[in-house]
Amino acid sequence: MEKVTEKPNSETQLPPPPPNHQMDADDDDENVKQLKECSSLYLSLQDCLVDSNRDWKSCQKHVQALKACHERKTKK
């Protein structure tokens, strides 16, 4: 009996998913741009929330970093 091995068809393979925050950043691009120097902290918070199934308690370091950045920005 002849053994047939299937090779995956490149057309049927799905492309790799975008980074966690990519879709949110595309939708809310203007809002993210307004954050300016705090935007990377905002996006890392979004990643944490996605990775932790929206568990805010596990993302407190990100929350506090974003809060501190925002406070520094508003004191200028």
From TrEMBL:
Keywords: Disulfide bond. Pfam families: CHCH. InterPro entries: CHCH (IPR010625), Cys_alpha_HP_mot_SF (IPR009069). Residues 38-71 form the CHCH domain. Residues 1-31 are annotated as: Disordered. The keyword Phosphoprotein does not apply. It comes from the Eukaryota. PANTHER family: COX19-LIKE CHCH FAMILY PROTEIN (PTHR48236:SF1). This is CHCH domain-containing protein.
